[in-house]
Amino acid sequence: xxxxxxxxxxxxxxxxxxxxxxxxxxxxxxxxxxxxxxxxxxxxxxxxxxxxxxxxxxxxxxxxxxxxxxxxxxxxxxxxxxxxxxxxxxxxxxxxxxxxxxxxxxxxxxxxxxxxxxxxxxxxxxxxxxxxxxxxxxxxxxxxxxxxxxxxxxxxxxxxxxxxxxxxxxxxxxxxxxxxxxxxxxxxxxxxxxxxxxxxxxxxxxxxxxxxxxxxxxxxxxxxxxxxxxxxxxxxxxxxxxxxxxxxxxxxxxxxxxxxxxxxxxxxxxxxxxxxxxxxxxxxxxxxxxxxxxxxxxxxxxxxxxxxxxxxxxxxxxxxxxxxxxxxxxxxxxxxxxxxxxxxxxxxxxxxxxxxxxxxxxxxxxxxxxxxxxxxxxxxxxxxxxxxxxxxxxxxxxxxxxxxxxxxxxxxxxxxxxxxxxxxxxxxxxxxxxxxxxxxxxxxxxxxxxxxxxxxxxxxxxxxxxxxxxxxxxxxxxxxxxxxxxxxxxxxxxxxxxxx
Length: 500
Known about the structure:
disordered N terminus
């Protein structure tokens, strides 16, 4: 750990992800000066609940940042990224009740009602209506927790909530706004008609700014909590997937990034909005002005691999790989007939079915734990491949993919994905991409960098192409057909019974 920033100051990146919360100090040329992380304090239940305490997360971020001893550095800017989640915040900046995270499915019963309300104006959303949208979650709050909704001053994303606690300013970014259900994605602005039809009070909505703009400066109270200087610039920030794509070097149209974590987020940067219902991809305003992305988040992929690993008796997917990886990676493509659909909490890109569930198929007495472990990885990769196919159907050119996240550190798994996807895969050699992206936004907001290209030149590590595996394409095609049969069966079983 380096204990001194180089000339020009240091940048603090905060990443509140689905599994871990990470805080990192980077020098202006991309060197890691200090970093700390801890499991994100979230919880999930069998009834579809997925929540965390906003106050617990804020306390965790403050403790982690203070542990970096940031006053030993000249911190000139702070960038924040976070997983998708909806926060009702009161006038004092406190979360009214638990944050509803993206996998929370309790608003699923309001999806059709929102579709009915929006009518043809739903085409402005750039995505199918799903239970993830804050518009649906507010309908759930209105029916189940009206007192909480009545006590709210702001409806914020989880990242917005952290920025509010840092600066006292309620503001959101164009990418998070794209996920709400009341934002015209092509116009990059709230739609008065969508707001009216969704039934949300306009006064609850924070102003929208670009992710690289300053949201404000660090308040005296936050500075004392974090051990930083009051007045430090805080960028508006963005969702962890999009910020990760930026940190992978997606600063121009034509770049496709897979941010692989608990869920994979596929993003292909385009220079103009392209989305025509009933497209299976999502269109988002990107974190850079004048740029959009086609793609979206899959359901649980890495999270499902971790679940399988724990089911097999290991503490994590990393532990399972240490014990089973050699045997699993030596197996043929298709895992000798074992198939796994990872949609444990429903699917997102490209099938958007919150009722879909996971499935393990094809088991025989000759199969081992290594077969099941590899099938989980193949299932995650084939799930992403469905998204890649949807990108191409929407008009994106996907000739290669930059992959970032935990898998990028395991060459065998990157090679497996390249083999199954049929395209070259490139990995970055440096720091976590979301960390780098958050630092880039902080550097632009604070005036350290002129623009995203300048920030990328300073902070983004070169990408290296991973050699492809040697499986025959016909074997890969057969393996995909078997996996598809497993996924299709899971979708049928997860579908609600027909109305009587």
